[in-house]
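yo

u said u wanted the structure for the complex thing, so here. seqs first:
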Amino acid sequence: MSQEEIYSRVKKIVADQLSVDPSEVKPEASFANDLGADSLDTVELVMALEEEFDIEIPDEAAEGIATVQAAVDYIKDKAAA
Amino acid sequence: MTIELKRVVVTGLGAITPLGNTVAEYWEGLISGRNGIAPITLFDASQHDSQIAGEVKGFDPLTYLDRKEAKRMDRFAQFGVSASKQALADAEFVINDLNAEQVGVVIGTGIGGLKVMEEQQEIYLNRGPDRCSPFMVPMMIANMAAGLTAIQTGAKGPNNCTVTACAAGSNAIGDAFRLVQRGYAQAMICGGTEAAVTPLSFAGFCSCRAMSTRNDDPAHASRPFDIGRDGFVMGEGSGILILEELDHALSRGAKIYAEIIGYGMTCDAYHMTNIAPGGEGAARAMSLCLKDAGVTPEQVSYINAHGTSTPVNDPNETAAIKTVFGDHAHRLTVSSTKSMTGHLLGGSGGIEAVASVMAVAHDRVPPTINLVNPDPACDLDYVPNQSRAQTVELAMSNSFGFGGHNVTLLFKKYR
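structre next:
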């Protein structure tokens, strides 16, 4: 799975979950600071990413995923493993 | 110590109902005797004994909420918040930093976010506990319509949720009335909301044998006081009032629909779902309400009945009215607007208070439709099938709930 493919799927999920315009979902965007996610949104977003990519994201790892790019990187590593 | 009780008036109304999603449409539907009952579209009811309901039609939460806000609310909360916003706008009441702590919310519901709970239960069973949404609990809990209305409007004063089944909306208005009367708030957003047209809810109510199964003729299924009635028809929606301290309303030049002057509440202490024989507890609620208001039975012009169209409610409510009003029971008018909207459970007290207030404001009483052959045990003037022009000085609204809760409110023409 290419970086671009992951990014495009992450972008769609984030836009959908956080009810934001896809154009706002830039790699450097922070879920909490730029995209208006609160603690409940973040939990739901991680669950949606787990479903989409059929992976498990442990709570400790989820805490480190604060931006779109961080999510893409994490998923890329997981998919490669 | 005696507390000086303040006069409390109704300055705003909001309604999301099976007859329309504004107060104007709702009232027009009521006085033209329009039916709001149809086959269920919200879920596949083909396996249920009852397959009809008074659904809210054409409701777009995005009229009142942004996409993210709407997504985080169960339908019952969307209705409650939307009707509250309508009511505040109608009252032209602005909540700001100066008055926020003086404005509160009491919104009742019988059940709460059942739709969300059912969806999440399915996820739990099929995919396990880790897949359940973090929004499940905050979306389903019954108080969330009141909490979200405060979040959406900035009302930081007293906030509560009554959960007294089908009396919840009326309890909410009565409790809010007390708060303003005693000076704990200058204004209250209050009423009821419900969205329980769901598969599990219908399964349970059908098993209680409480619902009409006239599936082939939905328009005539809700027929309070008629001999052919066979149970209630469920409706959904929300009715909200702005109650305001009189001097506060006058000082800002608010329009005043009516004054709220009485609140009575009792319990049958008899049975989980059946009304006490002769409507004993209901009669006491009406009597207490009259006493609270300091008026005589003869002053009452109109009663918006609980009138569920169940075999048990209607004759017992009729008997209770006769106990309280004596001969005057045959002179006042009584109608059940549930004949048109269905029974909104915890939402019913809200929309029926709106109907009662409009009756006072417009001197017109809505009819009981589908009343063709009255039950011999139901022999009052139920305003059959056509609304009627009538001077409505005092309008009473009854709500009774599973658990034996009986609540009566009294509205008066403002002078």
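Chain A is about 60% helix and 0% strand. Chain A touches chain B through eight residues (CB under 8 Å).
cya
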